[in-house]
Write a structure and sequence with these properties.
Blueprint (H helix, E strand, L loop, with lengths): L2 H15 L5 E5 L21 E6 L4 E5 L5 H7 L3 H4 L4 H5 L1 H4 L3 H20 L5 E2 L14 E5 L3 H9 L3 E5 L7 E2 L3 E4 L10 E5 L8 H6 L6 E5 L8 H5 L4 E7 L2 H10 L11 E7 L6 H7 L2
Parallel strand pairs: 5-6, 5-9, 6-8, 9-10, 10-11
Antiparallel strand pairs: 1-2, 2-3, 4-12, 7-8, 11-12
Length: 290
């Protein structure tokens, strides 16, 4: 069983307990003329995430810069195609689909998760720590799956030994106080690991976790991490950190305009952190659904 199948099984259980709202819209970052994106194409936005909104206002997020996902989303299903879609049927694509379909299934499942949280009156604990409560110390051996550029200096300055795992061979090399490699086995010597939530989309989750059995702390962070955490905690993840949409209108406006500072007086999102000890569990939330 994979994380995707375990996650979808929970969504199916929820759908059997209560009617799910249908899809209202898919929101994409705007195209920016002549600005290259990661796949080398031009004319696309540098925005990294899309948002899927359900009819009750629940919003899920997903990374969209894997391969040509964003380009295909622009050319494919938009508001007119997805409006009114059965949310459970769309979420099933996370398991049955590939590429764009898998992304749409995942982002829809995340929107359903937010719907469950709201219906159950549950809100994850807030967090202001972008480093996943890792608390790097001198002598720590830390692994980073995916390069979190702004966090590297903080970890290295703490005196920790840092190894970054990247898929792009062009990034490989020694830096001042840290290194980048494509060899995931380097994680086997790490006591703490900080991971991008993109693992939930690119089919590398189980392979990476297999190299992290010695880690006493495994934090997965990013806007895509708005999923149910049970199956991740069962696999050894200790913290899941994501984004909580506070102001739906301000968030969508900022995403679709590409201007994150457009609503400085309105707090569109905040950070949250879910831990094994603090998570009430999926079954408990089901009991609280109104």
């Amino acid at each position: 069983m994979s994380f995707a199948t375990d996650y979808l099984a929970q969504i199916e259980t929820l759908a059997a307990r209560m009617p799910l709202p249908r899809v209202r819209a898919l929101h994409l970052p705007p195209p920016v003329a002549d600005e290259p994106c990661r796949d080398g194409a031009s004319g696309h936005a540098r925005g990294e995430f899309c948002a899927l909104e359900l009819e009750d206002g629940s919003i899920g997020l997903s990374y969209v810069l894997l391969d040509d996902t964003l380009e295909r989303l622009r050319k494919g299903p938009g508001l007119d195609d997805l409006k009114g879609t059965d949310a459970l049927a769309l979420a099933r694509r996370y398991v049955s689909g590939q590429g764009v379909d898998r992304t749409l299934g995942f982002v829809c499942a995340n929107a359903i998760t937010r719907c469950l949280f709201d219906r159950a009156g549950y809100r994850p604990e807030g967090s202001s720590d972008s480093i996943g409560q890792m608390d790097p110390q001198p002598g720590d051996t830390i692994g980073m799956i995916g390069l979190f550029g702004p966090l590297v200096e903080r970890i290295v300055a703490a005196g920790a030994d840092l190894t970054v795992i990247e898929l792009d061979e062009r990034a490989v090399g020694e830096r001042e106080g840290w290194r980048v490699t494509t060899d995931a086995s380097a994680l086997e010597r790490c006591s703490k690991v900080l991971s991008t939530s993109t693992l939930l989309l690119n089919d590398t989750l189980d392979r990476m976790l297999a190299h992290c059995r010695a880690a006493r702390w495994f934090a997965m962070v990013g806007p895509s991490a708005g999923c149910l955490p049970d199956a991740l905690f069962a696999r050894g993840v200790t913290l899941l950190g994501g984004s909580w949409v506070e102001d739906r209108a301000a968030f969508i406006d900022g995403l679709t305009s590409g201007d994150k500072d457009r609503h400085k007086g309105r707090r569109a999102t905040s950070k949250f952190a879910l831990t094994v000890d603090g998570w009430p569990g999926f079954d408990r939330l089901l009991e609280r659904v109104r």
